[in-house]
Design goal:
It contains three helices and five strands, in the order αβββααββ. By secondary structure, the protein is α+β, with helices and mostly antiparallel strands. It is globular. Bound molecules: guanosine-5'-monophosphate (5GP) and zinc ion.
Length: 119
């Protein structure tokens, strides 16, 4: 069923606690944890506890949870003290855009200058 945990999904295992992660925030519907391979001084992933393969399918099925992801991304930026210097919220969507984990997630990146347009 849509949103149900998937046995072969890494981020579902982080939600369940079967795979450890450095969790920085949790809400009823979301978890935020440090990326294992950070691309900036602050690099945190905000994910829904429910399994959806990408941000667009999450937003189509559960718009309030998609909004929760954005709110939590903002809270993370405040906690990490990167809101003043600027930060980026990224949803890689599809293999061609660099998505490697097919459980929706926002990257929150900051703590250094960020190029635009991104690569
Ligand atoms: P994507 O490439 O799908 O947009 O982002 C997936 C992200 O998950 C990558 O930045 C990658 O470093 C991160 N990642 C992959 N495996 C793990 C893991 O086991 N733990 C954590 N904390 N991050 C992971
Ligand atoms: Zn999942």
């Amino acid at each position: 069923m849509a949103g149900e945990p998937q046995a072969d999904c890494l981020f579902c295992k982080i939600v369940s606690g079967d795979v450890p992660a450095t969790i920085v925030r949790e809400s009823e519907t979301t978890v935020a944890f440090r990326d294992i391979n950070p691309q900036a001084p602050t690099h945190i992933l905000v994910i829904p506890k429910a399994h959806y393969p990408d941000a667009a399918s999450l937003a189509a099925a559960e718009p309030t949870i998609a909004a929760d992801i954005l709110r939590e991304a903002g809270e993370v930026a405040t906690e990490e003290k990167i809101e003043g210097t600027g930060f980026r919220i990224v949803f890689n969507t599809g293999t061609g855009a660099g998505q490697t984990v097919f459980h929706a997630h926002a990257h929150v990146l900051g703590g250094r200058g960020l190029q635009w347009p991104p690569g």
